[in-house]
């Protein structure tokens, strides 16, 4: 017979014993991802309740606290103010900028919190390993937001894989999308590797992790090529100005900030997500115009301080001889990832929603529709965001650690593959793991 738990507790202390109250959750970093995850959690008030937030921007923190009913004393600018009070929740969601993950994760782990950590774990291998070590030392359950593991599409791919025999090779494409790349990796927070992390880690650690999850074997060797091809000063059109707002080319340029953010404001859709980010959530003509005139998101893409690579290929060899080729590129529509998996008895092709299985013997193709489209963050990663939060909350509320599919140990391992691939790109070598 199981018993209820009544105080702040960790998952490891009540495995198999459901809580008789909602899980209490603190949020560190209430930007786009932190706010989105908290909003999903708000769907299940009987299972989880946001009780604290640490966010340095008043204009972001105050509406967040109001939305989730966070008491004033628990709505603070710095996460250290929360840790200074001792443990005030069961779990914490850490969604700060990439470079700011290690310190809060280690501090909250020491206080016994279970942790949901936005990807990437950290910008460098040493910090990523250190977070893994902090989890092992304290016994904290640390789950990483590798949302692709949690989609119905991924579960179905793994279910269907045996039908094509043994996996021999994989071809995988991440089409980042031209305006998404311009927003995040030319004008935005991930434009510089010294301020965030390399593009492969920031954008595609999902994909490297997903490939390992699907193939089910460790990587033994990696090579990579790529660079910053287009978003460079020498490619700037002759008439272009430093800001799109007063540029004579703003209505014809493929990367016009005025077009992107005003479309998002006026017409909604996926572009509204990016408009909301650039205005810190204020969706008005005045806020958009002010951000275009003064903020980083109003700059010409050829006049930014960016160095993030806009295209990269990665080749991986797995234990046992299977291989994978991965392409990450900015120069696409914003659409689902595309994958072909080549097996000894057939081929599986997927586009993030539809899965086609071709059988060599019968020469027939079976099509499965997983029913959810839209694999970008703006679209909830084809249900991955919601399933991640549901799994994390249910694991803690029901005492079921098996619901966590992206634990810190395996996530550190897949991050190490990313770091190896990036080292291979920078040095022109083949890296053995």
What does this structure look like?
- The protein is α/β, with parallel strands linked by helices and 433 residues long.
- The chain folds into three domains: 11-144, NAD(P)-binding Rossmann-like Domain (Rossmann fold); 149-231 and 308-378 and 410-432, 2-Layer Sandwich (Dihydrodipicolinate Reductase, domain 2); 237-298, no CATH class.
- The chain is built from 13 helices and 15 strands.
- The chain has a nine-stranded mixed β-sheet with strand order 14-13-12-11-7-10-9-8-15. A six-stranded parallel β-sheet has the order 3-2-1-4-5-6, sandwiched between helices.
- The termini are far apart.
Q: What share of the residues does DSSP label as strand, in percent?
A: 15-25%
Work out the number of β strands: 15
Look at the helices and sheets and give the structural class.
Answer: alpha/beta
| Separate helix tally | 13
Number of domains: 3
Low-pLDDT stretches are 1-6, 375-380
Shape: globular
Protein name: Oxidoreductase family, NAD-binding Rossmann fold
Domain Gfo/Idh/MocA-like oxidoreductase C-terminal: 163-433
Domain Gfo/Idh/MocA-like oxidoreductase N-terminal: 25-145
Pfam family, one: GFO_IDH_MocA
């Amino acid at each position: 017979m199981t018993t209820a738990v009544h105080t702040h507790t960790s998952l490891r202390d009540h495995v198999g014993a459901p809580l008789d109250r909602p899980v209490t959750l603190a949020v560190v970093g209430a930007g786009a991802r932190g706010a989105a995850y908290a909003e999903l959690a708000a769907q299940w008030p009987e299972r989880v309740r946001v009780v604290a937030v640490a966010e340095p921007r008043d204009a972001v923190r105050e509406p967040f606290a109001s939305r989730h009913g966070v008491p004033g004393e628990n709505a603070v600018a710095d996460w250290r103010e929360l840790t200074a009070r001792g443990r005030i929740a069961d779990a914490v969601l850490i969604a700060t900028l990439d470079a700011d993950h290690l310190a809060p994760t280690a501090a909250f782990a020491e206080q016994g919190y279970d942790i949901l950590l936005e990807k990437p774990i950290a910008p460098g291998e040493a910090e990523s390993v250190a977070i893994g070590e902090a989890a092992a030392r304290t016994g904290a359950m640390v789950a990483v937001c590798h949302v692709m593991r949690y989609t119905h599409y991924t579960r179905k791919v793994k279910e269907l894989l045996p039908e094509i025999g043994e996996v021999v090779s994989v071809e995988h494409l991440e089409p980042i999308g031209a305006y998404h790349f311009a927003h995040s990796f030319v004008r935005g927070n991930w434009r510089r590797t010294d301020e965030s992390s390399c593009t492969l880690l920031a954008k595609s650690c999902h994909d490297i992790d997903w490939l390992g999850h699907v193939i089910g074997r460790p990587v033994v060797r990696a090579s990579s090529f790529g660079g910053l091809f287009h978003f460079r000063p020498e490619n700037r059109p002759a008439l272009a100005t430093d800001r799109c707002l007063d540029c004579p080319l703003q209505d014809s340029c493929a990367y016009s900030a005025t077009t992107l953010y005003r479309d998002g404001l006026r017409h909604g859709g996926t572009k509204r997500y990016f408009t909301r980010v650039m205005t810190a959530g204020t969706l008005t003509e005045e806020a958009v115009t002010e951000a275009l005139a003064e903020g980083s998101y109003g700059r010409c893409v050829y006049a930014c301080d960016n160095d993030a690579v806009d295209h990269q290929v990665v080749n991986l060899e797995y234990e046992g001889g299977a291989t994978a080729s991965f392409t990450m590129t900015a120069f696409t529509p914003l659409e689902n990832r595309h994958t072909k998996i080549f097996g000894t008895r057939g081929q599986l092709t997927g586009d993030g929603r539809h899965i086609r299985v071709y059988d060599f013997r019968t020469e027939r193709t079976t099509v499965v529709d997983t029913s959810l489209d839209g694999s970008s963050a703006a679209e909830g990663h084809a249900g991955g965001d919601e399933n991640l939060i549901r799994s994390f909350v249910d694991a803690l509320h029901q005492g079921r650690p098996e619901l966590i599919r992206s634990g810190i140990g395996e996530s550190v391992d897949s991050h190490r593959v990313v770091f190896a691939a990036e080292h291979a790109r920078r040095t022109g070598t083949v890296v053995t793991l």
